[in-house]
Amino acid sequence: MEIRNITTFLKVAATQNFSKAAEQLGYSQSAVTIQMQQLEKELGTKLFERIGKTVSLTSQGERFITYANEIVRVTNEAMAFATDRTIPEGTLRIGSVDSLATAILPNLLLQFHHICPKVEIVIKTDTSDGLIEMIKSNEIDLFLTLDHKIYGTEWIRAMQREEDIVFVTSSKNILASEKKQDLMTIIKEPFLLTEKGESYRYELERMLSENDIDIKPILEIGNTETIIHLLEEGMGFSFLPFFSVRESIEQGNLFQIETNAPTIRMWSQLLYHKNKWVTPQMKIFIAITQKFFQ
Predict the structure, then answer these.
(1) CA triplet 281, 286, 290: central angle to 5 degrees?
(2) Could you give the residue ranges of the DSSP H alpha helices within the chain?
(3) Which residue in 191, 91, 88, 104 sits closest to 146, CA to CA?
(4) Distances from the Cα of 281 to the Cαs of 119, 157, 211, 237, in angstroms?
């Protein structure tokens, strides 16, 4: 059983597309097809179903992902043992939700690069659900997320910290004259929100719906930096993690508004799969992150 075929299997499982997997791996599509046929023959089972242009894992294919990740992990561990480099080399692939990627990740990456200048860093942003799928298919090594606590026997939680999600507006806004406002008052104002599916936006909408309140933003965008910039220019209100707006509040550009609504809190978390071989570069990034969030 060739490790190359195992790696290709994980890439096809992640992309659910033979041609995309071939493009990302630098193979021809026919080569990917042959590799998967070889693997299925060796295992004696069907791993993929191809109906039209759609590729999906069979139940056996889903089960084989765990074994494939373990094979890759052990192979990488053996290669690292053979080379025994003092300064880590290779790649570190990190998945992150946008709020953490823009507000906190740059600081962590700067520290990491000073320690591991030879490591190539790959960053991918997505929702928590998207990141979970990426790590299950070994597309990323670690994922940094902001959500409810993620449980499951397959996860190792390297770091967690509780975060407040707050209402903010420009410090020049007339409603910033009083720190506490009635929720119904500010909900009527123009809102800039992250895209649907973001954990804290979902919690806001759930809380409002329980009180038969609807919110219709004038702008939806995944990039929290853009929202913060527009807020500073006086464009409405938003609901964002406190860590992402802390600096703007301290500088006097934004104002945190308290309401009579229940406080919504989420958890910053750094996780990886239990079957993942923890590379030297992963260990260093985990240590940097733990120290930062303390």
Answers:
(1) 155
(2) 3-15, 18-25, 29-43, 59-83, 98-103, 105-115, 128-136, 183-187, 199-210, 224-232, 242-250, 280-293
(3) 104
(4) 8, 17, 47, 40
Is 149 within 8 Å of 119 (Cβ atoms)?
Answer: no
pLDDT tens per residue across all 294 residues of the chain: 788 899 899 988 888 888 888 888 888 988 998 999 999 999 999 999 887 767 889 999 999 998 888 888 788 777 666 555 567 888 999 999 988 998 899 999 999 999 999 999 999 998 888 898 888 888 899 999 999 999 888 899 999 999 999 999 999 998 887 778 888 889 999 999 998 878 899 999 999 998 888 888 999 998 899 999 999 999 999 999 999 999 999 999 999 999 988 889 999 999 999 888 889 999 999 999 999 998
241 contacts 165 by C-beta, under 8 angstroms: yes
State how far the Cα of 264 lies from the Cα of 148, in Å rounded to an integer: 11
Q: How many domains does the chain have?
A: 2
In the three-class reduction of DSSP (H, G, I as helix; E, B as strand; rest coil), residue 147 is classed as strand
CB atoms within 10 A of CB 199: 22
Which residue range forms the structural domain that includes residue 78?
A: 1-84
> What is d(CA 7, CA 25) in angstroms, rounded to the nearest whole number?
9
**Residue 96, domain member (yes or no):** no
Q: Domain boundary at 58, 84, 110, which?
A: 84
Q: Which of 268, 226, 286 is nearest to 100 (CA)?
A: 268
